[in-house]
Write the structure tokens for this entry.
Amino acid sequence: MNTLQTSMTIGFVGLGDQGAPIARAISEAGYELHVWTRRPQSLEALTGVKYKAYDTLSEMAAASDVVGLCLTEDSDIWHIALDGGLLANMKPGSVLVNHGTGLPAFAAELTTIASKYQVNVIDAPVSGGHPAAVAKQLLTMVGGAPEVAERCRPVFETFSKTVAYMGTAGSGQMAKLINNALLMMNQKNIEDILQFGEHIGLAIPALVDVLRAGTARSYALEALGTAITTEKASHLQKLQLIDMDLFAEAVTLVGYEAEAITRYAVAGATGLTAVAQLVDVK
């Protein structure tokens, strides 16, 4: 990585399941990493990499050229960016990046609000979960002004196998929601076919191996036993249902009819625990 790329200082908030590996990758690539956390113990996730921790969000914001947020909901982003004073303390011309999953309409709204502070906004949700984050193999879907997205691309490439520019503000979020919906639809297909296989007496683990090896293979199948286990399925199910609420709202806001897609994807999320138990992956 050349000096031009690493000359940007990167702020980060949200050292969770995906955020911590993302922040580590950024530091390991040679970028100067600045972090702020509500809980000091969260910094343990950065053990072994270089970073500077700040007592206040405003100090971290003022020291950063790009600030990445990896938080759970749009309301968290709103609280940090506006109520918490992040935007008010960021440098003119700097970039606020949202790596969380949320509504495309919120991404567009945040872009408009941030422009009053002379701050650029990029929505760059990621897909792949914790294992892909640790392996620096995330898929990052980017929405926002193309020149700003291109400026941030080298940072995104430190933790991504693919960085896909999708279009204007909110496009990254829409791509993520579509990706999630199709994953859950695939889960429903798997549930239906495995139930049929069980009904006719096939050995389910062997059938899963066949489907993974054949032309029916998919990420949803690959995730069984790795990202999706009987222990994790219930938690993942809740997150997927939240994602489908976002998808349904996003589709409604753009005036598109996708009730059949939503219904089928929700069924796939709802059946996730049953699939995990059927395969009996421990």
About this structure: The mean pLDDT is 95. Residues 153 and 163 are 7 Å apart (CA to CA).
